[in-house]
Amino acid sequence: MSGSLSPAFLFALGLFAALWLLAGLWATVRGIAMQRRSAFVAGQAERLASLVEASPQLPVIIRADWRIEASERLGRWLGLAQGPRNFDELRGLGSGLDATGHDALRQAILGAQRGAKPFTLSLRPEGSHRTIIVHGAAAPNAVGGPGGVLLWLSDATDGQQALAHARSERDEAMAAFEALSGLIEAAPFPMWFRDTDLALALVNKAYVRAVEAKNAAAVIDGGVELCETVAGVSAAEAADDARAAGSAQVRTIPVTIEGERRIMRVVDVPLAPEGGRVIGIAGYAIDIQELESERGAHRRFVDTQRELLDRLSAAVAQFGPDQGLAFANLPFRRLFGIEADEVAEAAPFARLLDAWREGGRTPEVRNYPEWRQAHVDWFAQPGASEEDWLLRDGTHLHVVAQPTPDGGLLLIAEDKTEQVQLAGARDTLLRVRTATFDNLFEAIAVFAPDGRLHLWNQRFRRLWGIDEGTLAAHPRVDALMGGLADRLVKPNQISIVQEVIRAATLERQQRGGEISFADGRHFDFASIPLPDGNALLIMLDITPSRKMEGALRERNEALEAADQVKTAFLSRMSYELRTPLTSIGGFGEMLQAGYAGKLGDQQRAYIDAIMDSVGVLGRQIDNVLDLAQGEAGTLAIERAPVDVRTLLEGALADAKILAKAEKIELVGNLSSDLGSIEGDAPRLSRLVAGLLDNAVRYTVPARKTGGRVLLHADGDARGVDIIVSDNGPGMPEAVAAVTKGEQAGTASGGIGLALARQLVAAHGGTMEVVSEQGQGTLVRISLPRGA
Question: 3.30.565.10, 3.40.50.2300, 3.10.129.10, 3.10.20.30: which CATH number matches 597-784?
């Protein structure tokens, strides 16, 4: 059989087997490829399903028979227990679509099935806040078959809420914009808005009124600017500067408002929402004319106040809210040693306290940091603080710190050193007064203007026998004195005391009197008005003086009797001495005349000495008689015209004999206009002669040679001055001698000086004695022209 197979058959058979093998291989390869494509398609379908499931929109197919093809999410969105399989299942009991939404969706689907009309609905499931947006249209035949409708459902709950919120914000923004626009329009000051080209785009009514335009459109169309070009900067350039700076720019310029020149504060504000590009420049202008006027007036008030504070004696300083020194008047700067640069640099209060402590202008304290902090806290205290500072140099300061409404501090320091010293002196004076009052011999009481007892001393209390408690109650004078009448010999005399006190307090008159107590004491009393309106009652115990008064009266009577006896004795002795002296003088003159025969030179010298002694003794007798009469007050002076020059020349002539004998130079310097005076010539002659005689006699012992006596006289219309001077030993006890009438120096000669004073006083003149030991004595007599 193998022999029977031909090669052709074998070839064909091999070819068939090869083709079959190839077909099997192709089928295998094609199966593998199809398997792979099926897996790819399945994967793609799964991915598409996942995408659809994850999509915010849910596809739903409604077929012509109202069957539904959709994922399980549709049931969850509608609040159903499971996914619906037909249209009627879209409604459930308390879930799914409500009747209105279900019917509306049915009608829309019918319209899409019949007319291929697309639709959009917003549905809200029952019992849910979810909002579902439904977009519907006829489905392709490949998808939904004939009569099918494809629905796309999307959950718009969040979007609707965001949309509602956006609408609310839009409404609020529009309301705020309208309110802001109304506010800008109603603003009393000009406001405007510039666009990106810096041209005016919006102005309010105040702007229109300020530029005196018809309306806002006319202002914008005409580009009418409110602000003029100042210092080369226009309004648009100022706005450009604000845009370039990215912040508000403020300037103060003069502006014409309704024809009146005003000072305005102009503000340009760049508008850039959330830091983005500037979309425009807003601006407004505020009239600060009154503010500037008030600021100027306030500045002038502050300057005037500070000038006034500089004139105060109290030290005043002002500190600002930053606790820096803003002002210090001159007394404050002097008191605390503050320099002008410290005020200019606004030195802090705490630093000033440290400087004051170093300079000894703060009190010494144990814990200075705590003290310093407590005083820095003055700025925050609600009320004023007062302190007394005792400085190391003894200065007493009263310090008052008053916080100011702006957060600053007003510090006032007053130097109370003198006041404290005066208070101490007053207390000391009161204690001294009390001690003095209590130790006075007088009983003293002070009554107030209303008659109440104000002060008293212990002698007053003991005098009337009043207890201290009664006086401490400050009784009225009528109540006090009314209970003391029984102390007096005559009780009704108590009314005299009351009347005296009343006269001093009410009538301001000083009165006095005398009262006698029942125990035999006697008192003088007087009430004296005091400058403060009170009255001082003084009571002096005169009981001892009363006792002495009787004795003195008796002694006075005895002295007067003795004086009368002395006067009579002197007068009698003068006359009795004058009688034999006259006889001696007469016989001497007869001897000098030669009645007893011629006398020799020796005899004549004796007779001349006798006659000189008679003259001297006669003058002494006259002097004694005049002195006695002067002391008794009975010296009689005869008044007759006396030629002064003649009187003095006679006295010089009489004294020259003694001066020549004693080798004393006697000089007369008499003025030619001496004239005459009214007086007793004999007594004046004796007065001058006695002064010359004594001057010559008492110059001799001190000066053996060179002794000099001068008689000088000068006169004017009022009187005559007679001066007798010498260069003798002087009178060291001249004043005492003149007072006592004793012999003293050259000018006294026994009773001469005392008698001279009496004679000069009797003529209405004065006598002055000037003496210096070793230099001489000068006696000046001034006599008036008339009596």
Answer: 3.30.565.10
- The class level of CATH for 55-155 reads alpha beta
Structure tokens at 603: 């005899």
Instruction: Profile the chain (787 residues) by mean pLDDT over runs of 10 residues.
Output: 62 74 76 73 60 68 82 75 78 71 82 80 77 81 74 73 74 73 79 86 85 85 83 84 86 80 86 74 83 72 69 82 87 83 82 88 90 90 88 88 89 85 78 75 84 84 84 84 81 84 84 84 85 84 77 78 69 68 77 76 80 74 68 70 89 85 87 87 85 82 69 90 88 50 41 75 87 85 83
Counted residue by residue, the chain has a size of 787
CATH class of the region 427-541: alpha beta
Instruction: Spell out where 90-234 has E strands.
Output: 91-92, 95-96, 119-123, 132-138, 149-155, 191-194, 200-203
The SS3 of residue 520 is coil
CATH architecture of 314-415: 2-Layer Sandwich (3.30)
Provide CATH code, domain 187-228+236-287.
3.30.450.20
Q: Is the pTM of this model over 0.85?
A: no
CA–CA gap between residue 514 and residue 542 (Å, rounded): 9
Q: Which residue has the tokens 């003795």?
A: 562
Distant-in-sequence, close-in-space partners of 177: CB < 8 Å, separation ≥ 6: none
Q: Where does 530-638 show beta strands of DSSP type E?
A: 535-541
- Strand duo 708-715 + 719-726: pairing: antiparallel
